[in-house]
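User: I'm writing a tutorial on reading structure tokens. Could you give me a worked example: one chain, its sequence, then its tokens, then a sentence or two explaining what the tokens reveal?
Assistant: Sure. Here is the example chain.
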Amino acid sequence: MLVRAPVRHRIPDPQRDGEDWRPPRTPGRLWPARLLDRAWRELRKMRTAIILLVILAGMAVVGTLLPQIPQNPRGVMLYVLAHPVTSPWFARLGLFDIFSSWLFIAVATLMYVSIGAGLYLRIPAAWRRTQQPELRTRALWAEWASIVFHAAFFLLLIGVVYGKAAGFVGNAAIVEGDSFVEARANYDNLDEGLIAKHSPGLEVRVDSFRAAYWPTGAPRAFVTRVRVYDQGRLVSTQDVRVNHYVAYGGVKLYQTGYGWAPTVRIESPDGRVLTDAPTIFLGDVPFARGVIKAPSAGAPGQQLGATAWFIPDAQVSGDAIRPGTAELKNPLLLLRLYRGDLHLDRPQNVYSLDTTGMDLRWRGALRVGETAVTPDGYRVTFSGVRQYSDLLIKKDPGVPIVFAAFALGLAALLGSLYLPLLGREDRLPPLPELTS
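And here are its predicted structure tokens:
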């Protein structure tokens, strides 16, 4: 009888046999897909939303420290002149219009995507727990309060977008005794939304301007007395101060700056008055700079232009002249008169004068009431000086929505923080009774 030997099965040894006996690996995703998945997982975390919110708050602080183009274009101009090294970099980053810059918009977009992704996951989970009565605890209601708090950010976004689209913001420099009529063409600069509506018939008249200074020369306070008219009817007489605006019909007036407006009268040799109106001067109040243009003097080659510096408190010592305080004590006007082409056939800044191809015809200093005659026979008179007030005029119909979002968000935040704490003492074990 033949006995067959038992068959022994050898366990394969990958190292000896040179074969890979591991189970086949599923092909992995490409690294861009893995990177996007990781970024998405991080973005939808509430921690990421908080970090982005902190970045937005920091950028808002920058917007309060640097002058902004929509609110204070003259301040931006002066900052650029005073900081020629850093200002070009700030301009590239959009820091002079921070709330419309690509950096701010990118961070805000990421924050809202992060909040939206978090709500997309949290709302269904909270709703499922709400359907089960045994899970309706204070912690669940605190979760709903937290969801409402984050949802309030979208209500805030609606208010901001609507206010931007239906509102406007602009600047107007108004000389004492003059008026400003609310219309597009009358603003020095204007930023308005696509569906913005102006207030026809609204007129602002500056009756007076007062400024007070500290002993160091720094401004202590400045006040503009304004009268507001609606369709020719006086509706308000108030003071516009820093951090104290005047509002009427949804339009708010803010005090943003002030300066001097000297009046220079220029007459031609044949007696024609070429210019005789207050001119807005920019720069530091103790040493302001302005430009005067008289295109009516003649053909392009015969036009007149002047660069001038106004010193309200000139300190004169021999031939040396230096600025003193910002108060009107010893006013002096330094002027250079040019003759030639004002280049009015191309866009230009009204506060600058291109003297290319122009001849310097006269220069000198004038006090109030003095007159100088140029070699060409033109009469230049420094006839007076007034002050002007730079007002920010703003209309933002989205403010009520923004306030509602803040109120809703604050109430929900308090609820999410304190609801879990209510009734906590009921869950504590009872204290043992004390026996004597």
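What the tokens reveal: The chain has eight helices and 18 strands. The mean pLDDT is 86.
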